[in-house]
């Protein structure tokens, strides 16, 4: 129990993350609460990853079982909105089916990502493949880092 007091790490961030994991283990993250400050509660649909490169911002939305025509992407006032609907499985719609467990989310969904002022909204591209929606938001060319050649 007092192991962390005897073996103090030189990385306070790592110690804080370890403490956070231990608290989550003891208290549980059930109750619909998120596992971290920036994440949504477990089971939020669709799950998303947001990454940044020197030339763009990349958003990955994991939407298995959703037809791309059922997904709506919009950018308005610095917010990227991903919305749509996931249809229920056919077996649960049939009248002669007894459902014992239904863990697959079905119904309307909406996720919103805040964009910074560096994104060039006129050059946004979205691609859907194997249940993953990849949205590439390039940075404005004037704001991208430029290498200067020394002569």
From TrEMBL:
Q: Tell me the PROSITE patterns matching this sequence.
A: SHSP
Which InterPro entries does this UniProt record tie to the protein? A-crystallin/Hsp20_dom (IPR002068), HSP20-like_chaperone (IPR008978), Small_HSP (IPR031107)
Q: Which family does it belong to?
A: Belongs to the small heat shock protein (HSP20) family.
Please indicate which superkingdom the organism of origin belongs to: Bacteria
| Protein name in the entry | Hsp20/alpha crystallin family protein
Q: What Pfam families does the entry give?
A: HSP20
Where in the numbering of this chain does the SHSP domain appear?
Answer: 39-151
* Transmembrane domains' residue ranges: none
